[in-house]
Amino acid sequence: MTHNFGAGPCILPQEVFKQASQAVLEFNGTGLSILEISHRTPEFEAVVDETILLVKELLNVPEGYSVVLLQGGASLQFSMAPMNLLADEQTAAYLNTGVWATKALKEAKIFGNVNVVASSKDDNFSFIPKNFDIPADSAYFHYTSNNTIYGTELMTVPSTSVPVVCDMSSDIFSRVIDISQFGLIYAGAQKNMGPAGLTLVIVKDEILGKIDRKIPSMLDYRVQIEGGSMYNTPPVFSIYVSMLNLRWLKSKGGVSEIEKENIAKSEALYKEIDRNPLFKGTCSIEDRSRMNICFIMENPELEKPFLKFAEDRDIIGIKGHRSVGGFRASMYNALPITSVHALIDAMQEFAEKYR
Ligand SMILES: *Cc1c(COP(=O)(O)O)cnc(C)c1O
């Protein structure tokens, strides 16, 4: 068995892969492949409806919010959010906690003013800044809930009276959240929801339509909501596989149950990182992510040999991002705890060998 710690596109459950491949051959008794069926058929419309319903159920989305399935990845949301929410003369507040946040605020500058309320850039984003001030006249406050590259995560939503916009690409569906604290949440699906090609947006309806910029139809949340996520041809297969994955999540007991597993998995690995004299974590302990666990070796010369040692045990995808180095073990929902134990065992055996 391969232990896939890749950062994204990520591991999905084996049963989802099996069901998805079956649907490529024949979808739901239609005599057609999921890849050739019209998106306007009742059979496929049912897939979109169920996907949106599962998102609403699993995340407990309250009244007054719309769930939309889009394309373009989280990266298009970096532009789409300010295009819809930030007027030329207004200022949006951004918390800079990494590469993705930096890219998001760069795009926002095209549409209005950006106030970076705090940044941990000078420390290579190894912690989440605290005690920053979000001016009450900001159009919105934007942050990245989980910093996929650096392994930091904000578990609580910074308190503010302005709408909160959150890039939740790499921790959505991993822990219980209170949607009512947000104005807009977006996530590229390929980190914890499904395959690449789908972008999830959850938006509070009342924050839309407040600015009078002309917005291209495809990039206007209101047009996409009105079109029921089918303003144009949606990413049919990505939506289908995401639906299967959300069904799997529901069958596991939903987000609160998977959160318990995610806590257990991350605690086990951090414990080993802190215990094993060869390894050490890269970010401040109170900001540690449950999804992406970054660590390095006390002796950098051992990093290549450890990577090889792990690969020989079918542990793949743990090479760290080039901006941090070392290792990054991404532990999304579908990664079984047995894979975490395989990695921990490898770290212990390696330490025995090089002690
Ligand atoms: C991967 C990632 C992105 C980029 O997502 P795309 O869908 O490739 O545009 C943005 N933000 C975060 C937090 C990510 O992890």
Key descriptive features of the protein:
Aspartate Aminotransferase, domain 1; alpha/beta; Aspartate Aminotransferase, domain 2; 355 residues; 9 helices; seven-stranded mixed beta sheet; globular; three-stranded antiparallel beta sheet; 14 strands
Would you write up a description of this structure?
- This protein has 355 residues and is α/β, with parallel strands linked by helices.
- It folds into two domains: 14-251, 3-Layer(aba) Sandwich (Aspartate Aminotransferase, domain 2); 253-354, Aspartate Aminotransferase, domain 1, CATH 3.90.1150.
- It has nine helices and 14 strands.
- The protein has helices spanning 14-25, 42-59, 73-85, 99-108, 221-226, 236-251, 255-275, 303-311, 337-354; strands at residues 3-4, 65-70, 91-96, 113-119, 141-144, 146-147, 152-153, 164-167, 184-188, 199-204, 279-281, 292-297, 315-316, 327-330.
- The protein has a seven-stranded mixed beta sheet with strand order 2-10-9-8-5-3-4, sandwiched between helices.
- It is globular, with a radius of gyration of 21 Å.
- The structure holds pyridoxal-5'-phosphate.
- Pyridoxal-5'-phosphate (PLP) binds at residues 8, 73-75, 100, 144, 148, 167, 169-170, 188, 191.
- Pyridoxal-5'-phosphate binds at residues 8, 73-75, 100, 144, 148, 167, 169-170, 188, 191.
